[in-house]
Amino acid sequence: KAGVTQTPRYLIKTRGQQVTLSCSPISGHRSVSWYQQTPGQGLQFLFEYFSETQRNKGNFPGRFSGRQFSNSRSEMNVSTLELGDSALYLCASSLQGLAGYTFGSGTRLTVV
Amino acid sequence: KNEVEQSPQNLTAQEGEFITINCSYSVGISALHWLQQHPGGGIVSLFMLSSGKKKHGRLIATINIQEKHSSLHITASHPRDSAVYICAVGKGGNNNDMRFGAGTRLTVKP
After folding, report:
1. Cβ pair A25, A93 in contact under 8 A
2. Residue B103 region by backbone torsions, left for phi larger than 0, else alpha for psi between -120 and 50, else beta
3. Which of A42, A99, A106 sits opposite B41 (nearest CB)?
């Protein structure tokens, strides 16, 4: 079966712009979580969506937002990009958020 | 102090050696996860533990809830095991509000 698909794989944006990243979970998985990974801070939890509702949110500013569609696909948006937003953004899906996770390959965002 | 501490940060082993990576946490958790990340960035979820021990092939994960400590063991290590191993804990009643360790970079030499 298809894994978790994240698009695009690589992205270069300019400071002040906004960006939208996409995550298609494994078929049947209703929970999608987003994570940011940087060399300095490591992996950090952004938010989790379950059945189109944000169920949990990490400690990130309001510039980071997300949503989930009825087919469980999820998008995250970062507005007014800063250099520090350069990171690998990973999403993971699971059946209910309590079982094992499957991670996507990530989107590497570079802000210049 | 980080909520999740891993040791060692870096580990180099010869092929065939027995590997142990440790994880200590300071918060109440509902589950602990071991993740594997290869150089390309992709992450694989190895184990999710809430008690006891789990085994999958050459990998064994244990957790001691009272001591707030978990270990990941790799038996008969192989160069393809070279990766970063990350411990993550799910806090409280929601596994998805996770806190991550800094990772252990393992290099297995042939």
Report:
1. yes
2. left
3. A106
B69-87 pLDDT, tens digit per residue, is 999 999 999 999 999 999 9
A102-103/A5-7 β-pairing: unpaired
Cα of A109 to nearest chain B Cα, Å? 13
**Number of cross-chain residue pairs from A and B with Cβ atoms under 8 Å apart:** 57
Is the Cβ–Cβ distance between B83 and A84 less than 8 Å? no
By C-alpha distance, the chain A residue nearest B84 is: A42
Q: What is the pLDDT of residues B1-39, one digit of tens each?
A: 689 999 999 999 999 999 999 999 998 788 899 999 988
Going through chain A in order, the beta strands assigned E by DSSP cover 5-7, 10-13, 19-24, 31-38, 42-50, 53-57, 64-68, 74-78, 87-94, 102-103, 107-111
Per the CB < 8 Å rule, is B97 touching A45?
yes
Cis peptide bond prior to B110, omega within 30° of 0:
no
pLDDT of residue A86: 97
Q: Is the pLDDT of residue B58 over 70?
A: yes
Minimal C-alpha gap between B102 and chain A (Å) = 6
Residue A61 to residues A87, B36, B38, Cα–Cα distance (Å): 15, 28, 29
CA distance A101 to chain B (A): 6
